[in-house]
Amino acid sequence: MKKVFSFIIVLVVISSCRAQNDSYASFGEKISADNAVDIITASEKYQSMKTGDTTDYKLTATVNEVCQAKGCWMTLNLEDGNEIMVKFKDYGFFVPKDIAGKEVVIQGKAFVNIVPVKELRHYAEDAGKSKEEIAQITKPKKTYSFEAEGVLLKQ
């Protein structure tokens, strides 16, 4: 009887640890972490896309940077050194400004586009870059982009 009771306690502890590891704060539409691809798969997908291509997608990645004005955009690191610029559908929600380095799951539309200089400078300003850094932005940039319908922030 003691062995059975001990076994049950171990299962409960393991189960509670697993539940804590899978805890997320949700932003935007309700989404789940199920079937999210990793950054290697996402990187391969983006490399196969051309400017103007769009696809529905769900991925897990690490936050690199967040808009420090409102939390209205974030960038995610990809395995190949590139980043994904994430905006939120219809400007309908924001994320906390202090989540750099944390893991997120995002679901929405992945696409490749060319960002004009004016917009790049705006993002640099939102990120708190210096006037000198902003002035060095002189050419449009091809970017991996994402319009997120929902975001899960791993706790």
Approximate strand percentage: 35-45%
Q: What's the overall average pLDDT, rounded?
A: 87
Series of secondary-structure elements, N-terminal to C-terminal: HEHEEEEHHE
* Strand elements, count: 6
Measured distance between first and last alpha carbons = 37 Å
Q: What is the CATH class designation?
A: Mainly Beta
User: If you compute it from the alpha carbons, what radius of gyration comes out, rounded to the nearest whole angstrom?
Assistant: 19 Å
Question: How many DSSP H or I helices?
Answer: 4
| CATH fold name | OB fold (Dihydrolipoamide Acetyltransferase, E2P)
Organism: Gilvirhabdus luticola
Protein name: DUF4920 domain-containing protein
Keywords: Signal
Signal peptide: 1-19
What are the key terms here?
155 residues; OB fold (Dihydrolipoamide Acetyltransferase, E2P); 5-stranded mixed beta barrel
SSE blueprint:
Layout: H1 2-21, E1 24-28, H2 39-48, E2 54-66, E3 73-77, E4 83-88, E5 103-115, H3 117-126, H4 131-135, E6 141-154
Parallel strand pairs: 4-6
Antiparallel strand pairs: 1-6, 2-3, 2-5, 3-4, 5-6
